[in-house]
Amino acid sequence: MSPPFRTMNARLRLACQRLGLARHEMCKLARLAENPELLDSELLVFSRDAFCKHLHTLVAENEDGLPPHALCMFTLHGEGVDLHHAVQILNSSTRGHDIVARTGRHSFTLLLRDCHISGARAVARRLAQALREGCFSTGGNTVTWAVDDLHEAMREGRPLECLARRLATPEKTIPLS
Prior knowledge:
alpha+beta
């Protein structure tokens, strides 16, 4: 193992410990350790550009035989947003092969592999509730979310922009109960 890679691995382990990530959550980040340029350096998840590239590569390589994959986007609106806790919730509440990306200042997108839209909606609803309950220091905040099939989003052009258009504005968001 080369010294730069060993150093990156040590930094990744230390950051995971600081974030309180469990061992199985660290495994999700291990694949990024070899390519530090893919990371959002603040939150140790995929960056927007790397995530978009990954989506396009995934579809191009599996054009005909790609199983159903879903995209879920979450945006946190309000004061005192704890983004590190949001990443912890998203990483610990998804499967090991799902991918979390930071796609905006307070926005995150998940790629749920082998997941139909109905299952993705249930996951998104549960995650939005957990984010709303765990990521704000004050009340009156909202989490907006949108779900789309990866194939459909790719047909419409840019998947993240398609999802962002579907997000409700914060004023129209019904607080989750």
